[in-house]
Amino acid sequence: MYKNFMDKINLSRKAIEAQIQSMSLEFFSQKDERIEWKTKPPSFILSFYKFVYYKKRIPHQIEFWKYYSEENKNDFSENIKQYLPALKARCYRAYPSFVRDIHFYYLMVESNLFEQVLYHPEIDIKYGIDFVVRYKEKNFGINCYIDTPRSQQGREKKQFRHSKVKNLIHIDLPVHFKGCKKCGQFYLYSQRELSQLLKILNENNSLIV
């Protein structure tokens, strides 16, 4: 099992909320099938967590794009270089979900409801698992996603890209924007999603011998 990457980062739920409260979000209309589904650009996730690790804070959206593009420019294929505006638009769309996930990590940790909460970017990238939680002596791999037609389309396309982890119970946590906690322009997970997760974990615990 991986070590918890978040042990290297000293943040909290309240600190993240204070940082993002006044941040603005911007989105672009450019979309290209080659960038969306047919190419594999360098990981956004790795760059996001590297920024947070080194800077000890959440990047602004434009900071994230600049950090990502500068860090990975030598690894961009010719295909990607031709469609940089579409890649930038995709990066800007992905960014709020990374902020939402790191905030949820601290919400779970600070709730003291779990024996362990673990996050590591490699687990996310390789296995499609947002968090590993230990609950009632069982290990669960949690996949959080906003329940929209587009996200469902993405999940269907990506379902065969990820390996499965043995000895880990895979759990999906679909979330609806309606009723989500708002912090500035960000939609965040809150007690509602925490309660939803606990319900799913308890249901699965009762079914597993």
Short description:
This protein has 209 residues and is α+β, with helices and mostly antiparallel strands.
Structure, described:
This protein is α+β, with helices and mostly antiparallel strands and 209 residues long. It has one domain. The protein contains nine helices and six strands. α8 links the parallel β3 and β4 (169-175). The longest helix is centred in the middle third of the chain and has 28 residues, at 84-111. The chain is globular, with a radius of gyration of 17 Å.
Write the layout of secondary structure elements.
Layout: H1 13-20, H2 33-38, H3 44-55, H4 61-72, H5 78-82, H6 84-111, E1 116-118, H7 121-127, E2 131-135, E3 138-146, H8 149-158, E4 169-175, E5 181-183, E6 186-188, H9 191-207
Parallel strand pairs: 3-4
Antiparallel strand pairs: 1-2, 2-3, 5-6
